[in-house]
Amino acid sequence: MKKTDPLLALTTAALSLPVFAGTPPTEKEISLRASSYEEDDISKTSVLSGSPERYKIDKTHFRLLTPLGSDWSTEINTSQEVMSGASPWGTFSGSDEQPSLIMSGATIRDKRTEVAVSITNYQDDASYGVTLGTSREDDYKSRSISLSAGWDLNNMSTLGIGFSFSDDDIEPTDAEKFGRIQQAKKQTRSFSVSWTQIINANSLLFSGLTYTNKEGFLSDPYKLRDTRPDKKTEWAASLKYRIFIDSKNAALHLNYRLYNDGFGINSHTVNAEWHQNISSRWKISPRIRYYSQSQADFYLDADDFSLPKTVNQSSDHRLSGYGAITVGIQMNYDLSGWKIKIGFDRYISDNRYGHDSSRHSHPALLDFNLTSLGIEYKF
Amino acid sequence: MRRFFLVALLLANANYARPLGVGETAPEFELPSLLPDTKDLTISKTTGVITYLDFWASWCGPCNISFPEMIELKEEFKNQPVEVIAISVDKKRELARRFLGRHRINFKVAIDATGNTAEAFDVPGMPTSFIIDSKGKVYSEHEGFRKGDMKKIREQIKTLLIADQT
Amino acid sequence: MNYLKQLILSSTTILVMGCETVAPWDRDVLARPEMQLSTDPMGDALFEQVYLSKEASSGGYKTAGGGCGCN
């Protein structure tokens, strides 16, 4: 299972413009975060052949943010992931009409490294930033550049715009042995615009719109049969609301994202977090997420080998219609510049949870646990 | 639709309060002191000295940079008729005191929990500082604080000192 | 998509018009760490990466603005 756009998340983290656009950070921050992602094994009854053992990813992420002089700041993010597990190669329709999976065999041990460096310049009420990033693993190389700008208007609103471009090279492993494409390219261009509005002394609302265009090899080269269009456009609109409730000494976060793309997928994501201050040192934040997507136009719940290879089709569970719920909690402990963060989240996906689910539940729909531990120091 | 949006944006930007201008008389104020060993419970603006007046808050990021530079400023002009007064707009004294505990303060600190004094001075952003001349008139206003901003402020105070001596 | 753009434009307009200016000295709550659009950039990056590789959707997250108005 290949990750798409691995750099996007890292460059997004680097470009989150803090507070108001025109304020440079005043302290240095060093952070380290270790996380463990573990999928539940697939039920053996759904597996025709191959290993039912699913993905496990251990990740270490290092971040350094520092002011440079009086008007600049720089941020470095670097992370490494070690991945192992089996992936679905194909989906077959059984005698009972229920699809079952052919999984890859021996577990793969794969490593991915990424680095992103950003520089931001701060003017009165405005800031401008650029980020360069690169990500490498055995079969995938990505380079990206992002530009962003933010303007504070009358101290109550902030306008932001962003542009990013990434250029990826794909070289699937064991290409000759399995008749996979030997080499392919993909390019992604993305534009975003956002507006943050302070509503009153206790609340604010963010709204953002992102347009993305992808071109090149967009199929999954590890599937027995997977042909996708070589162009894809995506639209995502989001709202984020923040409100502080004095009587409870807590902040409520509500996020909503509406997404649709040229593959015919539309999705809704709703997110809620409650940030409860316990004391000046302790904070606890329970969170819940609901996600639902429709299926791609060319999605089939079982591979159809009678179709020519040029016809679009995919039985990838990630293109099926389904819903998912994540429930989690984070605890923060602060002590004179040091911060410890511990988080735990459980994700469950199910055909029954979706707003526009596929007719058959895909057997590869996954559940996972995500645990993370972070240490930060500000000085 | 677009025109409506533009008009709305312009209206929202309109500043209804009359800004405190350079050359105008600085408002009087009487505020409680935040320093524990000061017998005086109130501080009022003094005339006859040049005053560097700084509005700060425990939650204001740039104040981490301005405070060490204010300490240096006060030290530099300690034998001159120059007063440094820092007014906190923190709503809870405890938060202001905690911030002060991290610095070796050598100047006067007061608290304006209601924000009335900040409003009287029409503070445009946090932090904002004013240089008030020996006659009680606003000489300059400085919004925001970046590393090295004290250099320009130092020059302005020196100019005023020279003007007073002649 | 046209409908969505109209919705965003009108709600932004309503917000801008309907919001009473918050004085700089009243920005203590907005400056709180738990009131920022992103309270945990590394955590956000982790989730964004997990979800965009395990689900079909991405984007909409780039942020700007908020808070204390410190300048």
Assembly category: heterotrimer
Task: Find the count of extended strands of chain B (DSSP E, 2+ residues).
Answer: 7
- Taking the alpha carbons of the first and last residues of chain C, their distance comes to 37 Å
Question: Mind telling me the CATH class of chain B?
Answer: Alpha Beta
Largest interface: A-C, 99 and 56 residues
Q: Over the alpha carbons, how many angstroms does the gyration radius of chain C reach?
A: 16 Å
Give the CA-CA distance, first to last residue of chain B. Answer: 61 Å
Overall mean pLDDT of chain B: 85
Shape of chain B: globular
What fraction strand of chain C?
under 5%
Give the CATH architecture of chain B. Answer: 3-Layer(aba) Sandwich
How many DSSP E strands of chain C?
Answer: 0
Kindly state the percentage of residues in helix of chain B. Answer: 25-40%
**What profile does the largest beta sheet of chain B have?**
5 strands, mixed
The computed structural class of chain B is alpha/beta
How many H/I helices of chain B?
5
Beta-strand portion of chain B reads: 15-25%
The helix/strand order of chain B is HEEEHEHEHEEH
Shape of chain C: flat
